[in-house]
Specification:
The chain has 194 residues and is mainly alpha-helical. It is 65% helix and 4% strand. A two-stranded parallel sheet has the order 1-4. Strand 2 (90-91) and strand 3 form a beta hairpin. Helix 2 packs antiparallel against helix 3 (38-62) and helix 4 packs parallel to helix 6. It starts with a helix and ends with a helix.
Amino acid sequence: MTNAIRAFGWLVPWFFLVSVIVLIVMLFVSRFSKRPNKRDVRETLGLWCLACWYIGVVMITIIPNGGSAPIQFEGEDRARFSLVPLDGWFDQYGLNLTAVRESALNAILFVPGMILTLWFTKMRTSAAFIFLIGFGGLIEISQLLTNWGRALTVTDIIMYSLGTVFGWGICGSHVKRRTLDKPLSTKRIFSKSR
C-alpha cells in the first residue's frame, strides 16, 4: 500500500480538483438546460461518479509514476509492448507475485467502471462491455505512443476484460431492467430464481 501511495499519492489533489470542476460543470449544465428534478440530480451525480472513474483510471494508467518520464540512458532499450499473455508472471524463481498483483489490480480497476456504466447509463450490457474494453485498448495504445515508461501489454487488456466481467457479475443481471425511478430492491437480489 505504501508503494501505491508513494507512486500515486501526488495525483490525489489533482484528481479532487478535476473532479470538483467536472461536478460544477455538470451541475451547471443540468441546472440551466431544463428544469431540474430529483431524478435529474441523481442522474447527474451518477454520471459524475462515472466521469470521476474515467478521470481516475486515466490518471493512474497514463500519467507516469512520480509525474515525470523516467530517464532513459543512451543505448538502453526498454520494451514498449508485449503481445505475450501473462508476460512477466513467471521468472527464473517461479511465480512473480509482483506482476500477478499488478495484473489483479488492473482487473479490480475496471470492476467499478462496469458497475457504474450499467447503473447510470442506458447502455446494453454488451455495448458497455465493448465500450470499456475499447477504453482499455485506448489506454494501452496511449501507453505505447507516449514515452512515459509504460508499455502496451496484452495481459492488461485481458485483465481489463476480466474486471468488466466481474463488474457485470456483481450487478449486471440486476441492473439490466432497472430505472432510476424504481430502486433496486433487496428482495429481487436475494430471492431464488425460478
